[in-house]
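User: I want to check something. If I give you two sequences, will you return the structure for each one separately, not as a complex?

Assistant: Yes, each is folded on its own. Here is the first sequence with its structure:
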Amino acid sequence: MLIQSAAAPSGTHHTTVTDRGSFASARCSCGWKGPARRARDRARRDAEAHTGG
């Protein structure tokens, strides 16, 4: 499953949350990658924190 969040106001970051087995992780178009999480909600929060949202 692929979950996309809105881009940051500057338009330079585009984050996605992807599932891999039991884990979800956030990634950004700038190259940032969050840790693997068992909870998709936590991975989404990691992405929001990265973009400042």
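And separately, the second sequence with its own structure:
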Amino acid sequence: MSADMTGPKKYMVDGERLGEVVDTDPNGCVWLRPPGGGAEWSPMDPSRLREPDADELSRAQILGAPLIEAQP
């Protein structure tokens, strides 16, 4: 399995679940993780994956952004 972890994050929607693509393999298997962390999953039907719309993508980018420590 391999995913480009150096490039921009890639998000997909599996039914109603929004996930960051964390791994793929040559057979088409995809592994997703909720933006910001959580348990990974592999879609039951990868053919039903779709690109997120603008609102979903914005939500994923906000949830997936690293938290920064507040400066006093």
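Because they were folded independently, the notes below concern the second chain alone. The longest strand covers residues 17-24. The beta strands are 11-14, 17-24, 30-33.
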